[in-house]
Write a structure and sequence with these properties.
- The chain is globular.
- By secondary structure, it is mostly helical.
- The protein contains eight helices and no strands.
- It has one domain.
């Protein structure tokens, strides 16, 4: 038994898991990327079921997020320069900010917020809390390590949480709200504007840092 345990500890994968925090972060990121893609497909299916362009926009949003996570992982393995990683992710953030504005416009344009089955509400709420937890973990790591990869993963996690919070808000207003259209428009436009400003701010910050690092 001791030989087996010692053999496991000596394997490269287990050794990296135990001794390399950066490797653990990338492994967690790979797991999050998988969930991103699953959730994108989930929203795409809901868009077909409910005939909602809003869900289709959310699917595109999470698809881009998953691609950005994949780019960070691949870029790190290929030893791409920090300015290059920051620039590409900054451009991706701008795309996500534009997508968020489209999501908000879709929400306002649709005549009513659909009422969802409880299983859909549970899935949306669970993913939102998962993204909130990942954002907190990523923010703590970025503050401690001050590494470009950690900073990118933090901003990607925060961007994912913003989209999840908007989706949870709208689904809760539609399922549990009283149907006051004026109130729904105020809530959705305010939240959408705040999300757009935050994501755009992160994009500008990444692009500025890319330019400074290149100098």
């Amino acid at each position: 038994m001791e030989k087996r345990i010692r053999g496991l500890k000596e394997s490269p994968l287990i050794r990296n898991l135990l001794n390399d925090p950066f490797f653990r972060s990338l492994l967690t990121t790979s797991f999050s990327m998988g969930w991103n893609l699953v959730y994108a497909v989930f929203n795409g299916i809901l868009g077909i079921i409910f005939r909602s362009y809003w869900f289709a926009s959310l699917a595109a949003y999470y698809l881009v997020l998953g691609m950005m996570r994949g780019y960070v992982i691949i870029g790190n393995r290929k030893k791409r320069s920090a300015p290059s990683l920051l620039k590409i992710c900054g451009i991706g953030m701008i795309m996500l900010a534009v997508t968020l504005s489209g999501i908000t416009c879709m929400a306002i344009a649709e005549e009513h917020n659909p009422k969802f089955p409880m299983i859909v509400m549970i899935a949306i709420a669970a993913y939102t809390f998962y993204m909130a937890a990942m954002s907190i973990i990523s923010a703590v790591k970025a503050r401690k390590k001050k590494n470009v990869i950690y900073i990118l993963l933090r901003d990607i996690a925060l961007t994912g949480m913003i989209g999840s919070m908007m989706a949870l808000e709208r689904s809760m207003l539609g399922t549990f709200g009283d149907g006051d259209r004026h109130f729904l428009m105020i809530m959705e436009s305010t939240t959408g504007a705040a999300g757009f400003i935050l994501v755009l701010g992160m994009a500008v910050s990444l692009l500025n840092r890319s330019r400074e690092d290149k100098k």
